[in-house]
Automatic annotation (TrEMBL):
Keyword terms of this UniProt record: Oxidoreductase
Signal sequence segment: none
Classification via Pfam families: FAD_binding_3 (PF01494)
GO molecular function, one term: oxidoreductase activity
Residues passing through the membrane, by range: none
The keyword Iron belongs to this UniProt entry's keyword annotation: no
Protein name as it appears in the record: FAD-binding domain-containing protein
Positions of the FAD-binding domain: 5-346
Length: 392
């Protein structure tokens, strides 16, 4: 079997893995990213980049290039009960310096990070590379067995990273345990045409039956999500597509045209609304980051931001650990010590907000408690402790 050696092997080329790969490569660390898909193209992933993500990219010095890429700026969150707008929260009221969130196709974001990383000779990436097994010796974990384009390859690494998302293989293989894990609802996603008068905003529509989330998708579509209690999708399919068509038609005028054309369930993609937190993110030679370690609920669209923040600080922890020749669990746990308080706080805020959508208010006024919760989720209160060598 072919065997190769690197400093850091990252399983997963999502936002966390790509950002970590870039930052390590910038430090001259030999890094190999393994991504099981053949390209970045995928439907329905984290495409709203929250204000806090923009703040981090500004801090790294990457935003001026990123904002040249395809994206839509979102100025506000609007809350509707049926057709009546009951509240509006403007990003400008939450953070005057970054008064927007951005919708950016994830392949665009990941492609940008890849291109940037490829400028460093110590960066490598394999697509069509699915991690199958963890390798270990008596000092701890030291790499993975990967199936790359049909060939089994042993990748030996001083540090192995699980950046392989919410259903992480590395987490399972490494026997990591959850401190908590929730899955109580699902999101049913679909794409429809955007009405010509749609403002640059994310809209939550509350109806008698359920809540909908709608936001612009470049250049002229809406991405729409129906929030469902876990398991209800089965009942909806049993009731038949006619009943769902009627429901969508009545929910909000923006969905009426889509409802007219609906003849089967093919346009819908069901995704779990999960939240989990892994008790300990590190083992000897092995570290979880991003959704593999901590997965947020969809409320506030903050998963990419949390994953990015963990990846940025992971780059510093790993580079220092390699330089010290100490990749023990204790050393790598420094990442969790830096990150867990914020992750826990945002998870808890999501629960507090999730059960209490805003009540009818007047016009544009944000509802005080809800807006405070949104601010906590959307905006980074203080800059990450990023060292100067990690900025561009
Ligand atoms: C439908 C949906 C909508 C979302 N919307 C938003 C949003 O608008 N804004 C937001 O901030 N967050 C959103 N999120 C959350 C966000 O997508 C995640 O929090 C974020 O992508 C986590 O980044 P990550 O790099 O940790 O994991 P991921 O993005 O999941 O990346 C993991 C990568 O690992 C790869 N992989 C998995 N297993 C293996 C393996 N065995 N070997 C090799 N590669 C592997 C996967 O193919 C994937 O590319 C959404 C999530 C979902 C499901």
């Amino acid at each position: 079997m072919k065997s190769i050696q690197t400093d850091v092997c990252i399983a997963g080329g999502g936002p966390a893995g790509m950002l970590l790969g870039l930052l390590l490569a910038k430090q001259g660390v030999n890094v190999l990213v393994l991504e099981m898909h053949k390209q970045f193209e995928r439907e329905f992933r984290g495409e709203v980049l929250q204000t806090r993500f923009v703040q981090m990219m500004q801090q790294l010095g990457l935003w001026s290039e990123l904002e040249q890429q395809t994206h839509v700026r979102l100025a506000a969150h609007d809350y509707y009960r049926g057709e009546e707008r009951i509240a509006r929260v403007e990003f400008a009221d939450l953070n005057a310096e970054v008064p927007f969130a951005a919708w950016m196709p994830q392949p665009v974001l990941l492609g940008y990070l890849q291109e940037k990383a490829q400028a460093y000779p110590s960066f490598s990436m394999w697509f069509d590379a699915q991690v199958k097994e963890l390798l270990q010796d008596d000092t701890g974990y030291n790499g993975v067995l990967v199936e790359h384009a049909g060939e089994q390859v042993e990748v030996r690494a001083r540090v192995t990273i699980g950046a392989d998302g919410r259903f992480s293989t590395i987490r399972r293989l490494g026997g990591f345990e959850y401190e908590y894990e929730h899955h109580e609802s699902d999101y049913l996603w679909f794409i429809c045409n955007m009405p010509s008068d749609w403002p640059a905003s994310i809209r939550l529509v509350m109806t008698e039956q359920r809540n909908y989330i709608l936001f612009p998708r470049y250049p002229d579509q809406l991405q729409a999500g129906i929030m469902l209690p876990k398991g209800q999708w089965k009942q909806i399919t049993e009731r038949g597509v006619d009943a769902l068509r009627e429901e969508l038609r009545a929910a909000t005028p923006a969905l009426a045209d889509f409802a007219e054309t609906l003849s089967d369930f093919k346009p819908f993609h069901l995704l779990q609304a999960r939240q989990h937190f892994v008790k300990e993110w590190a083992q000897d030679g092995l570290l979880l980051i991003g959704d593999a370690a901590h997965c947020a609920l969809p409320a506030g669209a903050v998963g990419v931001s949390l994953a990015a923040a963990t990846a940025i600080l992971a780059a510093q922890v790993i580079t220092e650990a390699l330089a010290a020749g100490d990749v023990s669990k204790e050393r790598l746990s420094r990442l969790q010590q830096q990150r867990e308080a914020e992750v826990r706080e945002i998870h808890q805020t999501q629960w507090r907000m999730g059960g209490r959508p805003p009540q009818p208010g007047s016009g544009k006024q944000p509802l005080p408690n809800f807006a405070a919760g949104l601010k906590k989720v959307f905006v980074m209160e203080k800059a990450l402790p990023v060292q100067s060598g990690y900025t561009f």
